[in-house]
Amino acid sequence: MKPPRHWVRSLGGAGVVTAALLLGLTAAPTSSAAPAAEPAPAAAAATRQGPAVAPVVHEAESATVSQGAVESNHPGFTGSGFVNYNNVSGSYVEWTVNAAKAGSAKLTFRYANGTSTNRPMSIAVNGAAAASGQSFPATATWRSWTTATVTTDLKAGANTVRATATTANGGPNVDSLAVDTGEGPAPGGDTPVEINGQLKVCGTKLCNQAGKPIQLRGMSTHGLQWYPQCVTNGSLDALANDWKADVLRISMYIQEGGYETNPRKFTDLVHSIIEQASARGMYAIVDWHMLNPGDPNVNLARAKTFFTEIAQRHNNKKNVIYEIANEPSGVSWSRIKSYAEQLIPVIRQQDADAPVLVGTRAWSSLGVSESSNESEVVNNPVNASNIMYTFHFYADSHREEYLNTLSRAADRIPMFVTEFGTQNYAGEGSNNFAFSQRYLDLMASKKISWVNWNFSDDHRTGAVFKTGTCNSNGPWTGTSQLKEAGVWIRDRMRTPDNFPTS
User: Fold this and answer.
1) Would you say 376 and 362 are in contact if contact means Cβ atoms under 8 Å apart?
2) Are 336 and 359 in contact (CB under 8 A)?
3) What is the DSSP letter of 178?
4) Catalytic positions, please?
5) Within 200-262, where are the H helices?
6) CA distance linking residue 477 with residue 219, whole number of Å
7) Which phi and psi angles does 263 have, rounded to 5°?
8) Counting Cβ atoms within 10 Å, is residue 31 exposed (0-12), middle (13-18) or buried (19+)?
């Protein structure tokens, strides 16, 4: 029997700044939208959905909000709510928007102003004024929605758009920002999501919208309760554009100071990071990071609540993947299977199309770390479609037996490596790059997607950034701030799958 994985890596670091401060979160509404008082914009998607979408609509409730609140008490809004500015000069909403290329764009703000006076705002793009006194006239009632448009220039890649109140009355209620560059992305698209669209499981492979098997490569965050300061606009820009990652795994612990301590805070944080990944054209794995206790059924009620809201909010996106049980341990496969078969229908009620990833026994080792193997899953698969099974390895601890198990399993059932490291099972010690490369070669040959642990500056070997990088807000690009494992994994991530489309 291999050493059990007691996960020293689950311990948090010091100096963590609250997630709301770093990502500019605000509480999301708990009630659903009332029927619209007037027709909503036809393209009311929360983010870019693929090559044909223009304009791109970004909801205000998913943006960074300063001196304002997300509300849902006036009908007619799109998404799940709107932002009510505080009655103070300087209150603002700031969006991160992505442009396929540099050029002119129309920014259309959907708003309501139920007062009798204009509530002007300053519109800034990447910190520079685009309209210093944009008018937002009265709309008679708070349920009467209209638009105001500003024409400006955007740079290629990620841009910030901030709408700031300029008088003591504050701003209007802002519903969304629509960004129209006048044309869609280049044919075929540039980002992983533009190219591949909605993913689905076909046979034993993960396939794109053209039905072709693909391999995704990316990074996992560390626990959001400990390292939110490592998930910023700058770090995600680097991950998408410098590292050329296809996928971001959003690691939300349930215990260990995570979700159970403040479900609203952590759900909102996941909402925000999904939007950030989407704006950069990356796939987003929503990781229900259950670790201790090892039986996922302990958290079944919490999982139903969480995934219902996540799937309902993001069901119009093509880039969301649900990972419903990070690392079951000390529990039978039949118990894990039962959990999956109760939870997957809950997700499917809200999102019928997204792949679901199911954790396997013994810390997602297909049972190997508890003296079993893939046969228990092969012979008794989860009764659900469009699912994959997860496998985790740490190359300096998990060698031939684990590698061979993954190889055999991938020929029989759909596999996705949602976590791995080049060190020992605790994410510590020396890097075994030679054995890690054997895993990467196998995964490339069998189109097994992978995600590396972890995108933080934790002191352990497996964290890619040198200690202190996140608290210093970078630098994020290049290799000067990376540990040895970070340099190695970044280099391999920058040579992506060819993403066949025909």
Assistant:
1) no
2) yes
3) E
4) 327, 419
5) 233-237
6) 15
7) -55, -40
8) exposed
Q: Is 35 exposed, middle or buried (0-12, 13-18, 19+ CB in 10 A)?
A: exposed
Q: How many CA atoms lie within 13 A of 54 on its CB side?
A: 16
**pLDDT above 50 for 41:** no
DSSP 241: I
Distance CA 189, CA 65 (A): 31
The string of pLDDT tens digits covering residues 325-366 is 999 999 999 999 999 999 999 999 999 999 999 999 999 999
pTM of this structure: 0.68
Cα 390 to Cα 366: distance, rounded to the nearest angstrom: 8
Helix, strand, or coil (residue 416): strand
Answer whether residue 46 shows pLDDT above 50: no
Residue 441's H or E segment, with its range, is helix 433-445
Amino acid (one-letter) located at 452: N
Three-class SS state of 346: helix
Output the six-digit token pair for 272: 């925000």
| Residue 103 falls in which region: left (phi positive, over 0), alpha (psi -120 to 50) or beta | left
pLDDT at 53: 42
- One-letter amino acid for residue 155 of the chain: K
Note the pLDDT tens digit of each residue in 211-239. Answer: 999 999 999 999 999 999 999 999 999 99
Query: Coil, strand, or helix at residue 238?
Result: helix
Among 312, 326, 225, residue whose Cα is nearest residue 274: 312
